[in-house]
């Protein structure tokens, strides 16, 4: 018989087609057509680089097969095929057990954060993921839709979704998917778009089964316009929850350094509310660098002003409000001593969320600040990441 092998696959029901895995794969083993993102069994070498970057976990699927599924077969799937029955002896005779062990070890490494991979904070609660997918979405009812920004060219909304009797256990830092109604040019349902939850685990309103999102209207954006136009009482189809590493530590002594731009503030709001409702100022504290064009376009500007400094130290930074353009990384350098002190504390957890473009500037600020105290940022960052204390989510 043909030697069975372990094949790496992607679950089309959960995948949100963000193509991050495809961009990450160092050997171009991942590709896509209009329908699905797929792994080429002839190229994949099980390096596992794609595993931790997937926001939904749909990448982490495996089947033992006699003949690998072809790309065309995978392109045609609406759901993953069940594990085929290869008959007794297939695994023992073929060395598949050894392969299994090797793949399991690599997967454990990918999930454990060795070598720069993401890992959840040690004290974080265990997240629930993928409870709802495209085939079986949750149905939420819109409870509120509030405009957060006064800037006429920058419409950011605070959307509250109620899940009624359906379980939707989300932790701070997780995301959910929203399925826009209607179909695409080929008559297929639209794929979900991912949004970070901006409310804490006990609900936007304490002990209600509701969550909030922070959504910016994008010109021509199919889902952002749908979400920003929602009315109270509308029904919304939701997938998720997603995300198993960008999570908040439950340890009240943990110190949070949060760096965000625009709607990347969503998870930071969730973290702040969680702290506010649980330990408040009796904690390691939180320091935030938050960049926006101007106060009128900074989401939650008003509510932020009411958060006590003992809970949250705020550095609000504007790029279009004065004569000089200032970015979060510029302010970090101005606050070099503050940031350096946080970097040296093993209780510090760093969260970066927002525009992809900010990553380079933030990295270079950390490099310079670490150098000022005789540290190497890449070495420090790798230790922090391995310990679940360094998290980046940029788009
Ligand atoms: P935005 O208003 O366009 O930008 C926010 C601020 O970042 C502005 O002051 C902007 O300055 C500045 N900025 C631009 N380039 C920068 C760079 N290289 N380094 C540092 N700062 C820079 O932001 P937005 O439209 O809200 O977009 C936020 C992004 O976060 C989106 O891409 C979104 O997808 C992403 N995100 C959202 C969530 C969520 O759930 N809501 C989660 C993660 C990520 P100027 O434009 O004036 O130069």
From TrEMBL:
Residues where NADP(+) binds: 196, 216, 263, 319-320, 325, 354-355, 393
Chain ranges of the 4Fe-4S ferredoxin-type domain: 6-35, 37-64
First-tier enzyme category under EC: oxidoreductase
InterPro entries noted in UniProt: 4Fe4S_Fe-S-bd, 4Fe4S_Fe_S_CS, Benzoyl_CoA_Oase_BoxA, Cbr1-like_FAD-bd_dom, FAD-bd_FR_type, Flavoprot_Pyr_Nucl_cyt_Rdtase, FNR, FNR_nucleotide-bd
Gene name tied to this protein: boxA
Listed Gene3D superfamilies: 3.30.70.20, Nucleotide-binding domain of ferredoxin-NADP reductase (FNR) module, Translation factors
Keywords, in A-Z order: FAD, Flavoprotein, Iron, Iron-sulfur, Metal-binding, NADP, Oxidoreductase
Residues annotated as domain FAD-binding FR-type: 135-248
Top-rank taxon: Bacteria
Name used for this protein in its record: Benzoyl-CoA oxygenase component A
EC number: 1.14.13.208
Organism field: Maliponia aquimaris
GO molecular function, one term: iron-sulfur cluster binding
Cofactor(s) required for function per UniProt: FAD
